[in-house]
Write a structure and sequence with these properties.
Blueprint lengths: L8 E7 L7 E6 L2 H8 L10 E8 L5 H11 L4 E6 L2 E8 L3 H15 L5 E3 L4 H17 L18 E2 L8 E2 L5 E3 L2 E3 L1 H10 L13 E3 L2 E2 H12 L6
Antiparallel strand pairs: 1-2, 1-3, 2-5, 3-6, 4-5, 7-11, 8-9, 9-10, 11-12
Protein name: T5orf172 domain-containing protein
């Protein structure tokens, strides 16, 4: 492959904040169309984005790249058996930086560095990565309980987007609203969906108590228990 040859497609490195420990490496004639195809699904919380693209002059040259990676470390690729059949996917358990280094080495060896491009993330993509990182940190904490923030059954919390919505706490994990016992997250998701918002949500971030968002209240009390007092 030389720099004078015409590109027929791209090897891409895609990332997704939903599973930052994996990258998707594949081939497409049009990366934007491929992204639209992948992002049609509502089963993944966040959208795929292109981290890097490498212009190539032969179709499906990603297969050779897959073979190279599998040869170097066969445990990096996601392989599963489903319904009695073996499924090998384009996902690799490696950082996006490591995946880029592989393409960079190939580009340097072949003298095609000008065909390798990092893709600048949009403001929305950066925001989604930050949200996913926060959600990951949150998932490592113990599940929210009202006793963690000294709220007792019978007391009420306030939905921050509509103060007229004030569900009553019924036990350490549940609230009651309009005669229905539910959780903070479930009610928040239901209320947001009424406005056409279907992204994942953490219930304690959507309700307040005495003017303080429950998630912030929990964080403050945890910090105070460790001897840290905010100024």
């Amino acid at each position: 492959m030389t720099n004078k040859e015409e590109s027929v497609g791209y090897i891409y490195i895609l990332t997704n904040p939903s599973f930052p420990e994996y990258v998707k490496i594949g081939y497409a004639k049009n990366v934007n169309q491929r992204l639209k195809q992948l992002n049609r699904s509502a089963s993944v919380p966040y959208a795929f984005r292109a981290y890097a693209v490498y212009e190539v002059t032969h179709k499906l040259t990603d297969k050779k790249l897959h073979m190279l990676i599998d040869t170097l470390d066969p445990d990096l690729r996601t392989i599963e058996t489903f319904d009695g059949k073996k499924r090998t996917k384009e996902f690799y358990e490696m950082t996006k930086e490591k995946a880029y280094l592989i393409l960079q080495a190939i580009a340097e060896i072949s003298g095609t560095e000008d065909r390798l491009h990092l893709v600048n993330p949009t403001a929305t993509e950066i925001q989604n990565e930050e949200k996913a990182e926060e959600a990951k940190k949150e998932s490592k904490r113990a599940p929210f309980r009202f006793s963690l923030v000294n709220i007792k059954p019978g007391e009420k919390v306030v939905y921050i987007d509509d103060p007229s919505i004030t569900p009553e706490v019924v036990d350490d994990r549940h609230i009651e609203w309009k005669g229905k016992t539910t959780s903070l997250s479930a009610l928040a998701q239901e209320l947001r969906s009424l406005k056409g918002i279907n992204s994942p949500v953490q219930g304690p971030a959507c309700f307040s108590y005495n003017g303080e968002i429950l998630d912030d209240l929990r964080t403050r009390l945890e910090e105070e228990s460790r001897g840290y007092v905010r100024k």
